[in-house]
Amino acid sequence: MQDTLILQTILTYLLKGIIYKEQNPKIWNSLLEQQNAVVEYFKMIGLALFLDEAEGYAFLRQMSSEDMAILSDTGEMPELPQLIVRRQLNYATSLLCVLLRKKLLEQDTTGGDIRVIISKEQIRNMMVLYLPNRNNETKTFEQIDACIKKLLDLGFLRKLKTNDSTYDVQRIIKAFVDAAWLGDLNAKLEEYRGYANNAE
Question: What is the C-alpha separation between 163 and 157, in angstroms, rounded?
Fold first, then answer.
């Protein structure tokens, strides 16, 4: 009975969003213990568990039709309804994701503290080079602030309790801006810079 209750709690947390080791160590440890049962449960409804033990986060992803066909005895699978909505990020928000991912990469390369702490002013200074309408500072800063809010909502940034204008970059962003993006990161940033210059 106790194991069932623990499993139900884990499943509920995952259906609500991301589980972070740092923020919820008790649920995280239970997830590691019950990982096989969690995977099997969600497989039945077309969801896959994405768990990065080293970075300390876990979340659910919709399984592709190809993934489902592999699991099927016949190799065929009807199209399942989307349980997890895929959100298309706009240009500016995608740009901020790429810039923050680059910050994490730089931090990982230099070693030391694994946390990346960044202020709103630093984010503005990073992004302004790649945004159109740079002559209208108010409009540009409003756009950047909207991107910050979006990444807070997505769980890619977290406000520091000690300072409302300083953020902790959550390492889960690595799962969304992956190695394929990183291989072409500088070219992607130049593409963004070109877009900004052409849009002026």
Answer: 13
